């Protein structure tokens, strides 16, 4: 059974993000969510576009998968933590 992180990687790749760009995207996503955990999907997308992810459209299911992955990796309170844990452990087992 694939773990959440690999499912998220696969989903992001299917949506057009290259594997080597995923850590940067995750960092931007954490920053977008962490600034206000109650923010809407539309606001998160606007923040991602502001951070340079113009060609990517985040959908609700991918967002929920990312949040579940963050929580499983110990990102319960994303507002004050960096995404360094994700980049450091970036070793997709399926690849």
Supply database-style keywords:
globular; 95 residues; mainly alpha
Give a verbal description of the structure.
- The chain is mainly α.
- Helix content is 55%, strand content 0%.
- The protein contains five helices and no strands.
- Helix 1 packs antiparallel against helix 4 and helix 2 packs across helix 3.
- The protein is globular, with a radius of gyration of 12 Å.
- The two termini are 15 Å apart.
**H and E order:** HHHHH
Q: Counting H and I runs of at least 4 residues, what is the number of helices?
A: 5
Mean pLDDT score: 79
Structural class: mainly alpha
The total count of strands amounts to 0
The share of residues in extended strands comes to under 5%
Brief characterization of the structure:
The chain is mainly α and 95 residues long. The protein contains five helices and no strands.
SSE inventory with pairings:
Elements: H1 4-14, H2 22-34, H3 41-50, H4 60-72, H5 84-88
Helix pairs in contact: 1-4, 2-3
């Amino acid at each position: 059974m694939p773990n959440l992180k690999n499912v998220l990687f696969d989903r992001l790749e299917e949506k057009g993000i290259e594997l080597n760009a995923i850590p940067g995207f995750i960092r931007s996503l954490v920053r977008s969510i962490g600034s206000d955990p109650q923010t809407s999907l539309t606001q998160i997308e606007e923040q991602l576009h502001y951070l340079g992810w113009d060609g990517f459209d985040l959908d609700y299911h991918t967002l929920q998968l990312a949040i579940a992955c963050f929580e499983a990796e110990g990102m319960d309170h994303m507002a004050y933590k960096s995404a360094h844990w994700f980049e450091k452990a970036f070793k997709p087992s399926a690849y």
